[in-house]
């Protein structure tokens, strides 16, 4: 740990923690690892209900520790605990929950028997997943295509 950042309470001026400062190389490595996990991991192959389930598990774990998160926010930036609980923890969790509910209610087409082609894009760190309901003749010959 070469460099640390001191987190000081604005209310008491007490040292709350020392956290390591990442180097640009460490950040680039973390981003590359995350990108590779998305590009080659299972996420592009998950159907929407499976993705929603993953996000809901994260949301449940976050909500279970919401009080702790609010206390950390209060200590670090001096926000009133009621504001931290309602606005800084409560609103994001409510929004993510609403997004999950909307996605769950959407009439997604069935993925079984479809063909997918995953196309990592070289610009802006975006990727495209093409879902094709009926594969045209010869489509199976593409090495990058998989039937799901």
TrEMBL record:
Signal peptide: none annotated. Residues 5-103 form the Aldehyde dehydrogenase domain. Pfam families: Aldedh (PF00171). It comes from the Bacteria. It comes from Mycolicibacterium diernhoferi. Keywords: Oxidoreductase. One of its GO terms (molecular function) is oxidoreductase activity. Belongs to the aldehyde dehydrogenase family. This is Aldehyde dehydrogenase domain-containing protein. Gene3D superfamilies: Aldehyde Dehydrogenase, Chain A, domain 1.
């Amino acid at each position: 740990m070469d460099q640390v950042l001191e987190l000081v309470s604005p209310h008491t001026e007490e040292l709350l923690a020392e956290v390591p400062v990442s180097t640009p190389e460490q950040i680039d490595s973390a981003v590359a690892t995350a990108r590779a996990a998305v590009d080659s991991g299972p996420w592009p192959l998950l159907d929407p209900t499976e993705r929603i389930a993953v996000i809901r598990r994260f949301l449940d774990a976050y909500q279970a520790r919401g009080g702790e998160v609010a206390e950390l926010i209060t200590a670090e930036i001096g926000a009133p605990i009621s504001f931290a609980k309602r606005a800084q923890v409560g609103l994001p969790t409510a929004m993510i929950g609403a997004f999950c509910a909307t996605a769950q209610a959407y009439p997604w087409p069935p993925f079984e028997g479809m063909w997918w082609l995953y196309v990592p894009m070289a610009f802006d760190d975006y990727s495209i997943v093409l879902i094709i309901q009926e594969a045209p003749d010869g489509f199976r010959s593409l090495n990058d295509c998989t039937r799901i």
